[in-house]
Design a protein that fits this description.
heterodimer; A: 553 residues; TIM Barrel; 4-stranded parallel sheet; globular; B: alpha/beta; Rossmann fold; 5-stranded parallel sheet; 5 strands; 19% strand
């Protein structure tokens, strides 16, 4: 192997193992490039310059490596927030209530692709997709059905939507206000991270610059009007799913977060005043130790970098809060029951990492969206960890391990190295616009897949311990009648609303978009007039145009 | 026999934006010596057929992770028929439950490759079936 190829091999996939002919492990290289030694001693801590006060601090104290809160899960169990939504708003409402009745403590709404892309259910682009991978939302009416009888002042809601997150948050506020809640008391977390969509998940609509401006509008508006909302959930998650390493996941997420902070700071605010409401969505799969080290290093670095770059002082504004979970890439179609076991270990990794909020891809997600049974099983997995086997007993239980502390320090270095690489090519916005990050991630994904197929990386049930029998799981059923029902309702809505008021509100939105005003108050007005999501998103399409992918091949 | 290089249009139809699989397969086919044109995201079926004809490809490869493979493939195979395009094979990859494979094959999809299919299987299939085999 030439040196360059070897260097690449070390960076990707799950850990690389070099073994001798007797199956004894000679070398272990984690995905982020850290070499694991067979034995760790106090000398390793000395070698990396480990210092308790500087590197860890007590739980709840800067730099928060150990935990954001002094007592960790003792004082508060984690929030569970399974990704949920499908079909019509009624069906989603039913599933929400089911999950809550079984002990789920937060919501995380899955929207169908037309909704995520700013198309109404009757748009030709929506054909075949209405209600398929999530709930269809055309107007405020749909949200009113989906959230009926849910205590919006008690339960926080993640809104997995990005390009048109501004529209959805405005609708959520309008819905809550129509139900009689004070907007200052509702808690929503729109994902609202467009740069990661461009890199990894593909639900982009507008060109980079206006798209980032919309993110900034949401952050600025939430700071003033929705104090309990988290206006952005920066997702290293999807970039990791697309093929990057754990170290890159954190470095790209931080650089994306900085791009959003810079947008809002340029409007004349101090980072200190809003960054405390930022949240992150980060992935768990792969090597257990590397995952734990990643999260501990990330909490520490985030606090330190906010201090250094933006002079943030307020303790709570330095918290890396968020949802650690998922693990979709780790799940396999082969031997699907293995995914139940994988999920349990991913959840364990999240718990050992001090995840504040969590969610788990269900075992049938390599086939389709989860059945009720599969979703409940994920919830039970969390409950077993926290209520049965002792993950709430003590805070940051792996702290002080020669091994964990050494690789946590090394992980910090790796994350900084990856950040530097992107900053060398002009920073994250530039690196995304030019396709640099996408190319890097796609190349690694390919090399990982190749190694998997060549058997250099082990995946149980896929390339080792195979059974040669294809097993099918029970599948969530999609019904095309939901789409017609949704379209029918939309027609009804358009007939019954005050068309002139809708027209006026959309015109005002257009002016705001053109003049660079914060669009959020205008979106709230449009929503309350029952303008559709497609109409509001369409105004932005008209004013901003659409994103064109850079060729990366 | 000196056969011409196989040309493949790899397309992401519909609104699904998960393109890891499409890009990985694009790399693999290219490494196997095929010429690969990748459409990028959010393509309409009509646009894909149009591009396939314009580029004179032998293979139309679709990557669909959203679960909408049945309606999308139905539309595409119908359009190919309506336009009298018979010199191209259609292959599909993505999140596809086993029970849908015969449904897709019946509408004229030649090869279905659910996630996790080895590259060599996809490559062999295309080599054996494109250009009339």
């Amino acid at each position: 192997m030439n040196p360059l190829r070897e260097e690449r091999a070390k960076k990707m996939g799950v850990a690389t193992y070099v073994k001798d002919e007797k199956d004894a492990i000679q070398e272990v290289i984690l995905q982020s490039g850290i070499k694991v030694k067979p034995v760790y001693t106090p000398e390793d801590l000395e070698a990396v310059g480990f210092d308790y006060e500087k590197d860890l601090g007590d739980p709840g104290e800067f730099p928060f490596t150990r935990s954001l809160h002094p007592l960790g899960y003792r004082s508060r169990n984690w929030t569970t927030r399974q990704y949920t939504g499908f079909g019509t708003p009624e069906q989603t409402n039913e599933r929400f209530k089911l999950m809550i009745s079984h002990g789920q403590t937060g919501l995380n709404v899955a929207f169908d692709l037309p909704t995520q892309m700013g198309y109404d259910s009757d748009d030709p682009m929506a054909e075949g997709e209405v209600g398929r991978v999530g709930m269809a939302v055309d107007s405020l009416k749909d949200l009113e059905v989906a959230f009926k009888d849910i205590r919006l002042d008690r339960i926080g809601t993640g809104l997995t939507i990005n390009a048109v997150a501004s529209v959805m948050l405005a609708m959520y506020q309008a819905m809550a206000e129509n139900f009689g809640y004070d907007r200052k008391r509702i808690s929503a977390t729109p994902q609202n991270d467009i740069l990661k969509e461009i890199v990894g998940r593909g639900a982009w609509v507008y060109p980079v610059e206006p798209a980032v401006r919309l993110i900034g509008d949401v952050i600025e508006y939430a700071m003033k009007e929705l104090p309990r909302c988290n206006p952005v959930s920066v997702c290293g998650y999807h970039i990791r799913e697309s093929g990057c390493t754990p170290a890159q996941e954190i470095s790209y997420a931080f650089l994306i977060a900085f791009a959003y902070i810079d947008n809002v700071v340029a409007r004349g605010y101090r980072a200190e005043d809003f960054v405390g409401r930022f949240s992150f969505n980060l992935n768990v799969f792969g090597n257990l130790w590397e995952t734990v080290a990643k999260f501990r290093a990330a909490r520490k670095l985030w606090a330190r970098l906010l201090r250094e770059r933006y002079g943030v002082k307020d303790k709570k504004a330095l918290f890396l809060r968020g949802i650690f979970g998922g693990g979709g890439s780790g799940m396999t179609k082969q031997q699907p029951e293995n995914n139940i076991v994988r999920g349990a270990y991913y959840a364990l990794a999240a718990a050992l990492s001090g995840a504040q909020t969590t969610a788990l891809c269900s075992f049938d997600e390599a086939y389709t969206i989860p059945t009720e049974r599969a979703a409940l099983l994920s919830l039970r997995t969390f409950q077993i960890l926290m209520d049965e086997i002792g993950l709430r007993d003590t805070v940051d239980p792996l702290a002080g391990s020669y091994f964990i502390e050494t690789i946590t320090k090394q992980m910090e270095e790796k994350i900084l190295e990856e950040m530097e690489k992107v900053e060398k090519v002009g920073g994250m916005v530039e690196a995304v616009a030019s396709g640099y990050v996408q190319r890097e991630v796609a190349r690694q994904a390919y090399e990982y897949e190749k190694r998997l197929q060549e058997g250099q990386v082990t995946k149980v049930g896929v390339n080792r311990y195979t059974e040669g029998v294809d097993m099918e799981v029970e599948l969530h059923e999609y019904n095309e009648a939901w789409a017609s029902l949704q379209v029918e309702r939309l027609r009804e809505l358009k007939k019954n609303r005050d068309g002139r008021a809708v027209g006026r509100s959309l015109k005002a939105l257009e002016n705001a978009a053109r003049e660079g005003l914060n669009v959020m108050p205008y979106l709230v007005t449009c929503s309350k007039e029952y303008a559709t999501l497609g109409e509001m998103a369409g105004v932005f399409r008209e004013v901003f145009g659409e994103y064109v992918e850079p060729g990366i091949f | 026999m000196d056969r011409k290089r196989i040309r493949v249009l790899l397309a992401k139809p519909g609104l699904d934006g998960h393109d890891r699989g499409a890009k990985v397969v694009a790399h693999a086919l290219r490494e196997a010596g095929m010429e690969v044109i990748y459409t990028g995201l959010h393509q309409t079926v009509a646009g894909i057929v149009n591009q396939a004809v314009q580029e004179g490809v032998d293979v139309i490869g679709l990557s669909i992770m959203s679960g909408a493979h049945v309606p999308i493939c139905r539309k595409l195979t119908q359009l190919l028929k309506a336009e009298g395009v018979t010199d191209k094979i259609v292959v599909v990859g993505g999140v596809i439950p086993n029970r849908d494979i015969p449904v897709l094959e019946q509408m004229g999809v030649s090869g279905v490759f659910p996630g996790g299919t080895p590259f060599r299987e996809i490559i062999r299939f295309i080599e054996e079936n494109a250009n009339g085999g």
